[in-house]
Amino acid sequence: MIIMLSHYLVLAAILFCVGLWGVLSRRNAVGILMGVELMLNAANINFVAFSNYITPDVISGQIFSIFVMAIAAAEAAVALAIILNIYRVYTDIDVTKINMMKW
Amino acid sequence: MLNYAWLVPVFPLIGFIILIFFGYRLKAKAPAVSISMAALSALFSIFLLIKVILGQTLEANYPWIKVGEKIFNAGFVIDPLSAMMLATVGIIATLIQIYSIGYMHGDKRYSRFFAYMSLFLAAMLGLIIANNFIQLYICWELVGLCSYLLISFWFEKPSAALAGKKAFIVTRIGDTGFFLGILLLFATTGYVGFTEIFNAVQSQTISPVILTISAVLLFCGAIGKSAQFPLHVWLPDAMEGPTPVSALIHAATMVAAGVYMVARLYTIFSASTTALAAVAWIGVITLLLAGSIALVMDDIKKVIAYSTISQLGYMMMGLGVGGYTAGVFHLMTHAFFKALLFLCAGSVIHGVHTQDIKKMGNLRAKMPVTFIAFLVGGLALAGIPPFSGFFSKDEILIAAFDSNKIIYGLALLGVLFTALYTFRLIFLVFLRRGWHEEGPDAHESSLVMTVPLIILSFFAAFIGLLGIPKFNLFHEFIHFGHEVPTPNYTVMFIGLGTAVIGIIIAWIIYGARSLSLNRLKTTFAPVYNLLKNKYYFDEMYDYVFVKTTTMISGILALFDKTVVDGVVNLAGYLIVVLSNIQKWIDVHIIDGMVNLSGWITAAAGNKLKYIQTGFIQNYTFIIFAGILIIIIIRTAF
Amino acid sequence: MILETLVFYMLAALIIFSAIGVVTLRNLFRCAIMLVLVFIGVAGLYFMLNAPFIAVVQILIYVGAITVLLLFAIMLTKKISDNLIKQTNEQVLANTVIVILFVIVLSAAAVKFLWATKLVSQKIDSISMIGRLLLTDYLMPFEVISVILLVALIGAIVMAKKD
């Protein structure tokens, strides 16, 4: 069967939800970050698939995915710097133990 | 010239105004103002009298008050009656004021005394020339006011203040009747002017019953003002005032206003035989009542006061039995000799500093001028010719004889009493020998006091000659209707004889002391006690009227305190209760609600704070769960 | 045709299984390696979607830079007890439910909607097109993204340095 847009979209949806599960369930902060990367990738797949199937002559989806990647990179850098700082303070990056903002 | 007659009361009024405002500054010169004004009025009055004798009369009216369609006039009337009274009052008032310079010397309210005297004179003169009821009533009340002010002149003495109040209140009772009479006449005739009302009476447009009732009501004013029975009780108490006041107001002029009023309104009275009979009988009762009390009084002024009441009764009786001229004639002569007697009494009091005749005696030697003057006045009062009292009394006796024999008999008894008490006074005060004499201070009064005495003596002595039966000039001058008096020599002699008998009795008891006074007192003890206590009139009035009024006021005051104040207090109490309830509501319910909202917020916060776990994955979970729910709800519905 | 389908499903399987591996494995290193596999799979997908440039950039950036960064971070924050403790927190059950529901909803939306697909006749030279577009239509985001990268760079350095 021909691969339709919906296939890509479903795939991206599954990938997104897996990433979501990781964000919601992992204890390790770096693990959560990995989940976020998965979610961003799923979004990218969506962009490129749309660009290919709906506007193939104007490839704006691909350009947008470039930007998303750049943002993801910047965000990963900053997040990891923060995690390093947290590690320095608490010597532990278990997010369940870092809850200073609780009541 | 008669047009300016209205100035006669204005002069003393000006004197009053000047003295009220500047009297304190004038001090000892104050009498000059009032005496000059009084003399001016007196001279002008004499001038008017001459003009009237020559035949001129005048009644003038000026429009004054306009009420809707009706116009009330202010006016004055100068006819023989008013001219005679003006002159009499003017002369006596001037002489008494001259006398007061000496008598009131050193008093701390010297100028105010003369101010009040001037006001009184203005009001009295205004009363005399009034030609309508409004002016008459205004001046009537004004003289009453001045009487009150002057009786309680030494108001530091509580008895003087009480006497002033008593005088005013008692005369007020009479004035109420007077006012009702005026209103009744106004309601029936629609006029207040005398001329118009006389016309209405004579044309018989008023029903007899109304006429009688209004005449009797008008007479009530005279009963009060002239101290007739039963409203005579204020005059003896009025002796608290200075003696010149007693002389002027309570002997010569104000009390005469009642008699003058009856004379002036004689048309109304003569139209009703019932009213005239009432006047006569009240006069006679007063004559005997007061005359009998005067026999036992020990205060020199009180004796003369009761004598005044008695003589006023005599005058009223005279008017009542139809003797218009007789009554008016006696009014004039009485004014002179009674004023004279009072001034002499004042001179005596000034000399011996006491009013109790028991403490006096043998003053003939110490105060000769006063003695002669008093003797002249006393002879006039007793009715001994050729002094004035004889002629005037005699005319009244003739009128009484012609009208009602019973009244005539009682009048003779009155003549006996008069002579008796007058000479009792003379014997005890001046001629008694060997009794206790008041200190070495007794001396004759100064010239300023004795000269008026002398002048008044002349009047008291000779003015009666105007009424000598043969040439009755007075009757030609002042008369009512067309009666012609017939001299009745029998009545004259009987009257004279009765007076002489009275003098002899007085000499027996008090002069030669042949009959023991103490034995008389014990023999007639009950009568003596009755007379001494003035027939218990004061006690009776006090018990019946004063105590009742006080009791009613007490009840009303109690009512006011308990019920009215109770209601007010209850209202206040209810308000306090209401506010307490409101306070409770405010504190518990309203504040409670406010507190409750605060408590709810805090409690909710307490429970809801657990949402903030600080666990970011919880928050993320909520986000996505929310998105899911929204999507599902949106697509499902 | 069949090749395309086959390749797609193989890549899909790779991606999904690697992704599940990323989020469940206890050893973080292994998670990172699985992540690499996901990236490579996604790059393959891009090739299939006529986006060669994007595919290469994906590998360059994600695998080359981000993964290395993650590895460094893992190494710097490692504890000995890491492999022994449970990697999932207590709200796992609720998460699973939510995630499954999410998948169902998103998939349903994707499948049910009628997409307006277009087919292009000739092949497009994507690289030159991207280059041209970046410097004309999308110049502004391009400049902004450079600033963002600069800021992120500085920020990361400032935060991570020892002082």
> How many structural domains in the coordinates of chain C?
2
Order of helices and strands of chain C: HHHHHH
Residue stretches of chain C low in confidence (pLDDT < 50, at least 5 long) are none
Shape of chain C: globular
Work out the strand percent of chain C: under 5%
**Cα-to-Cα separation, first versus last residue of chain B:** 123 Å
How many individual helices of chain B? 26
What would you note in describing this structure?
- The complex is a heterotrimer of chains A (about 100), B (about 625) and C (about 160).
- By secondary structure, chain A is mainly α.
- Chain A has 3 helices and no strands.
- Chain A has helices spanning about 5-25, 30-55, 60-90.
- Chain B is mostly helical and about 625 residues long.
- Chain B has helices spanning about 5-25, 30-55, 80-105, 110-130, 135-150, 160-190, 195-200, 210-225, 235, 245-250, 255-265, 265-270, 275-295, 300-320, 325-350, 365, 370-380, 390-405, 405-430, 445-460, 475, 490-510, 515-525, 525-530, 535-610, 615-635; strands spanning about 60-65, 70-80.
- Chain B has a two-stranded antiparallel sheet with strand order 1-2.
- Chain B is about 75% helix and about 5% strand.
- The mean pLDDT of chain C is about 90.
- Chain C has 2 domains: about 1-80, Up-down Bundle (Four Helix Bundle (Hemerythrin (Met), subunit A)), CATH 1.20.120; about 120-165, no CATH class.
- Chain C is globular.
- Chain C is about 75% helix and about 0% strand.
- The longest helix of chain C has 25 residues, at about 50-75.
- The interface of B and C includes residues 618, 624 and 628 of B.
